[in-house]
From TrEMBL:
Subunit structure: Interacts with PTPRG.
Protein name: Contactin 4
Record carries keyword Lipoprotein: yes
Gene Ontology annotations for the cellular component aspect, listed alphabetically: axon; plasma membrane; side of membrane
Chief localisation class: membrane
Organism: Seriola dumerili (Greater amberjack)
SUPFAM superfamilies per record: Fibronectin type III (SSF49265), Immunoglobulin (SSF48726)
Biased composition (Polar residues): 691-703
């Protein structure tokens, strides 16, 4: 045998679990304490606070707490107690319990420390001074009234009462209350300011409020203060540190006469952003959402007519630390090395320290190093296990990040580095058999062949990393090899064995097929019978999913063949096909190039090189020939007036496959054309190219005249001429119009009129001298901006005629039924008097209607009678008749009237019965009685489904027996008013029966 194979035997890995069956887990905080500000005033009612702390872990964590770095002992009788991880402090003492608290959570993996949380007490004491002296100033002088807030803890809000509560001082450009000092500033005192002023201080935490003693403000009697320049009394510090995202308020106010105006600006000249509302920035400049770009030097300017004064201060940006790279839990082998990176942003730049199990990490060992936030430990030992915390901090805060280090010592284990159970090598080739067990610490690796220790030689060598290398392999090297790994914790081994290599017997090839055909791509192999084969096909390096791809691909190979068939091949199927064969121990592949011949691809770069009024010269570039030479090109065109693409005539008549230019002829002038080209080869015609850019042929004089020239009608003294407009594609250029020529029949000279609109289809010539219904010779020509075109053929058109001049006579009207009236008249003679008659118009209206709302009915030709349908029964109608022609209607005849007959019976025949007698059917029904307002019943009509009707004046009829189909019968009464309501349908079957009723 010419190959070597190795068989691997794996050990199982068993994870450690606690006794309760859950997976072991180091502690992780799910809830950490937050700072608390406690109002002292509530101590009498409730003297208890709770700091929250919660961590998950297995085993469950045990909790401890520190106050100002010293551990607290929640013992019996102590005012500290634990509920889970929460610290409850009862019987609060503001002197003993104020400070910084931290929670510690520990389990068998180590200890972690929470962030710091402070407990402070807010309070506000009363003012100590009970009386203040008067403040005496001149009118026009500025004054400052001091507040002097009492001892307190927590933020304060200041206001001032003027004389008596609830009258408070309102701030404006002249008066200002500083929320930094509480002082009241009046830029220029007026007589209305005289009175008592009381400072009111409110603690925002405790919500308590205290008032200072009143301070009287009086005016001096030694004159009025003159004007003087601004003096800034309220200033902001030279440097103000502002946290990222916070809101900063700068105060600035000046005394002066006149009252100074306060403006703000940045010293660097950069304008304030939109978030700063300058309309409110008088004594206070407020900058919300403070960011790095807001930092810089700010200046307050106080100005009046006597001068100007300024004050400057710097806003310094700071940001507490924010971790951007945190250490992650890690598991290492003994003697490995560890490097943890910890990075944070912040201003000032954060410093770093590391903690292990809740204590600062201070190791004298050289193998433990901390530098710029990174912790590195070399040659790990079991003593290095535990919980580590990176703490990044600056003067504005600290952030903590936790990570667990596990150090493990394990016996040799191959479960994480499983080897192939077989390894193949050709005779004379080289093979490397890896042996990479997991073991800690690293031990000794040896090899056996069969049951004997492996002897090394110049061809067989065990490398320093434990792998086995065999050079120039022979058949004798085949066999079972075992890798043995050993350290002080145990021994493990792994085996390998031998098999034949898999070989593809099909040779690489190139297949050539035509679109629409089917082809088989072969993939034949020889292989070790004990190994199972898996065939996988790729098309242009993309996996083929059989059953998809539109059903084109189908597997047709047997056990040792992976052949596939491609049915109905398309151009897109051309490319590289790869057959990959896999077994458990090796893999091999072969490629087949498939060439698909098909119709050419679309030509490209279609250009109109030159265009005249009827020709266009085209050029193009060939598209892909798809492996079959192009034999001919076809050119198509379309216009806004064509139905899609149409083939065009070219020069040469047949455009060969070697040509890339042609001239299109027989085009219409002044029409926008698009052209496209299609290529053909022996297989077929391909897809068309993209259309060329639109190109308009040049204009020329028109050649086509309007069709269907006719006319006539119109008003008196008019000659109306009509025609069908020439289509736009036949107008041959811009400025298209018509020339209308006409003359009386028999005349020699022509009169002409230009109609400049291409869409116009009518021209009216009006002249009082035109006699009614006179014949004219008419012809219509065409023109455009390029010149005049021809005239169409001459046709005869009559001028407008006069309406008939006489009224019909002998008008008679007769009621035929309740809904019909017959009207007759004497026809008017028709002669050549220009007042011909085309027909007659009847107008009729009922007694309850007006004549101007009459209904109209027309006849055609020389008809002398007609019937009006749809009138109402028992109603009087008035009727007049007049003749008409194209000019209108003539005078009306004498009006006649007629009353329609009563309506027909409304009740249908009932109790219809039938019976057979010999070869007849006898029908009987009950007589219908007309109502008082209905015409009398004079008979009945019996109809079958066949087109025949019988009439009778009795209430019975005899019918022949139905021999081939059923009878469907209806019966209607009738009288002089017409037919009445029908009975229900009666069905008489072909088989005669006894009396039946319906």
């Amino acid at each position: 045998r010419n190959v070597i194979a190795l068989q691997l035997c794996l050990l199982s890995f068993i994870p450690l679990v606690p006794r309760n069956g859950g997976v072991l887990q180091s502690p992780v905080f799910t809830k950490q304490p937050g700072s608390i500000v406690y109002p002292v005033e509530t101590l009498e009612r409730n003297r208890e606070v709770v700091f929250s702390c919660e961590a998950k872990g297995s085993p469950p964590p045990i909790y401890r707490w520190k106050l100002n770095g010293t551990e607290i002992s929640p013992k019996s009788g102590s005012h500290y107690s634990l509920s889970g991880g929460n610290l409850r402090i009862s019987h609060l003492n503001k002197d003993q319990d104020a400070g910084t608290y931290q929670c510690l959570a520990s389990n068998s993996f180590g200890t972690i420390v929470s962030r710091e949380a402070s407990l402070t007490f807010a309070y506000l004491e009363n003012f100590k001074t009970h009386r203040r002296g008067s403040v005496s100033v001149r009118e026009g002088q500025g004054v400052v009234l001091l507040c002097g807030p009492p001892p307190h803890s927590g933020d304060l809000v200041f206001s001032w009462i003027f004389n008596e509560y609830p009258t408070f001082v309102k701030q404006d450009t002249r008066r200002f209350i500083s929320q930094e000092t509480g002082n009241l500033y009046i830029a220029k005192v007026e007589p209305s300011d005289v009175g008592n002023y009381t400072c009111v201080v409110t603690n925002t935490v405790t919500k308590t409020r205290v008032q200072g003693p009143p301070a009287p403000l009086v005016l001096r009697s030694d004159g009025v203060m003159g004007e003087y320049e601004p003096k800034i009394e309220v200033q902001f510090p030279e440097v103000v540190h502002v946290a990222k995202g916070s809101t900063v308020k700068l105060e600035c106010f000046a005394l002066g006469n006149p009252v100074p105006s306060i403006t703000w600006r940045k010293v660097d000249g950069v304008p304030f952003p939109r978030k700063v509302d300058m309309r409110k920035a008088s004594g206070v400049l407020e900058i919300p959402y403070f960011q790095q770009e807001d930092a810089g030097m700010y200046e307050c300017v106080a100005e009046n007519s006597r001068g100007m004064n300024t004050v400057k201060g710097k806003l310094s940006f700071y940001a507490p630390p924010h971790l951007i790279e945190k250490p992650q839990d890690v598991q290492k082998l003994i003697d490995d090395s560890l490097v943890w990176e910890c990075k944070a942003t912040g201003k000032p730049k954060p410093s770093y320290r590391w903690m292990k199990n809740g204590e600062n990490l201070e190791s004298a060992e050289e193998r433990v190093q901390v530098a710029n936030g990174a912790l590195s430990i070399s040659r790990l030992t079991l003593a290095d296990m535990g919980m580590y915390q990176c703490v990044a901090g600056n003067k504005h805060g600290e952030v903590y990040s936790n990570a667990e280090l596990r150090v493990i010592a394990v016996a040799p284990d191959f479960s994480h580095n499983q080897l192939r159970s077989q390894t193949l090598v050709k005779v004379g080739g080289d093979v490397l058999i890896e042996c990479k067990p997991k073991m800690s610490p690293w031990g000794v690796i040896s090899w056996r062949k069969g049951s004997e220790p492996l002897r090394e030689s110049n061809r067989v060598s065990i490398l320093n990393n434990g792998n086995l290398r065999i050079w120039n392999a022979t058949k004798s090297d085949a066999g079972l090899y075992t890798c043995v790994a050993r350290n002080q914790f145990g021994v493990a081994n792994v085996n390998v064995c031998v098999s034949e290599p898999t070989i593809i017997t099909t040779l690489p090839s190139t297949l050539d097929v035509t679109v629409g055909e089917s082809v088989v791509l072969p993939c034949q192999v020889s292989h070790d019978p004990s190994l199972e084969l898996k065939f996988t096909w790729f098309f242009n390096e993309q996996l083929i999913h059989f059953g998809s791809h539109g059903g084109f691909f189908e597997k047709v190979g047997g056990h040792s063949a992976g052949d596939i068939m491609i049915r109905n091949i398309q151009l897109r199927h051309a490319g590289k096909y790869t057959c990959a064969v896999q077994t458990k121990v090796d893999s091999i592949s072969i490629a087949v190039d498939l060439v698909v011949r098909g119709p050419p691809g679309p030509p490209t770069s279609i250009h109109v090189e030159e265009i005249t009024d009827t020709t266009a010269s085209l050029s193009w570039r060939p598209g892909p020939d798809n492996h079959s030479p192009i034999t001919a090109y076809t050119i198509q065109a379309r216009t806004p007036f064509s139905l899609g693409w149409q083939a065009v005539t070219t020069v040469p008549d047949v455009v060969g496959g070697h040509r890339l230019t042609a001239t299109v002829i027989d085009l219409s002038p002044w029409v926008e054309y698009e052209f496209r080209v299609l290529a053909s080869n022996t297989i077929g015609t391909g897809e068309p190219s993209k259309p060329s850019k639109q190109a308009r042929t040049k204009g020329t004089s028109p050649k086509v005249t309007p069709a269907n020239v006719s006319g006539g009608g119109g008003s008196r003294s008019e000659l109306v001429i009509t025609w069908e407009p020439v289509p736009e594609e036949l107008q041959n250029g811009p400025g298209f119009g018509y020339v209308v020529a006409f003359r009386p029949r028999g005349a020699t000279g022509w009169m002409q009129a230009a109609v400049p609109s291409a869409e116009t289809s009518r021209y009216v010539f009006k002249n009082e001298s035109i006699q009614p219904f006179s014949p004219f010779h008419v012809k219509v020509g065409v023109y455009n901006n390029e010149g005049e075109g021809p005239f169409g053929p001459v046709t005869t058109i009559y001028s407008a005629e006069e309406e008939p001049g006489r009224a019909p006579t002998r008008v008679r009207a007769k009621s035929l039924s309740a809904s019909e009236i017959e009207v007759s008249w004497k026809a008017l003679p028709w002669n050549a008097s220009k007042k011909r008659v085309l027909g007659y118009e009847l107008r009729y209206w009922s007694r309850s209607e007006r004549e101007d709302t009459a209904s109209v009915q027309r006849t055609v030709g020389n008809q002398t009678s007609t019937i009006i349908h749809g009138v109402k029964g028992s109603t009087t109608y008035y009727i007049s008749v007049r003749a008409y022609n194209t000019a209108g209607t003539g005078p009306p005849s004498t009006t006649v009237n007629v009353t329609t007959k009563k309506p027909p019976p409304s009740q249908p025949p009932v109790k219809v019965m039938w019976n057979t007698s010999n070869s007849k059917i006898i029908l009987n029904w009950e007589q219908v009685k007309a109502l008082e307002n209905e015409s009398e019943v004079t008979g009945y009509k019996v109809s079958t489904h066949r087109p025949n009707v019988m009439e009778t004046n009795t209430t019975s009829v005899e019918l022949a027996l139905p021999t081939d189909e059923d009878y469907i019968i209806q019966i209607k009464p009738f009288g002089e008013g017409g037919e009445g309501s029908s009975s229900r349908q009666i069905t008489i079957p072909r088989i005669p029966g006894q009396w039946r009723a319906s």
